[in-house]
Amino acid sequence: STQSTWDHSNSLKMKFIKPGRVVIVLQGTHAGKKGLIVNSSASGSKERPYGHCVVAGIRTYPKRIMRRMKRKQIVQRCKLQSFVKVINHKHLMPTRYTLDLGSAFRSKISLADPTKRIASIRFVNRTFQERFYTGKNKWFFQKLRF
Known about the structure:
Helix content is 29%, strand content 25%. The protein is of the alpha+beta class.
């Protein structure tokens, strides 16, 4: 019998992998971290002949704060670090959540050269930090416990 090359689970996953979707990274340095899809490429490109997407996520989550802590310590513990990376679709698990950061957010992220990459990481960091301070999407800024 002939073997089918169509992967049912991969095609189902593709339906959900769209910009704005919150995902969990499954492989690599940032495994277990939450991320946000910025751009997605289903068919791939010449240098990456597989389905991939640009993911902006949280590398270091904010730590817990207690009432007895001093202001300086609270500010230090509220800091978060982010990452921007191109990741294979197979290494992502889409969640039911979405975050709307607008098209301006997507247009400012570029991985073309190292200077643009650093600038986009700083921009993502600033955006996530503002969102954390306003109290929007609290679940996104909490570390996964597993």
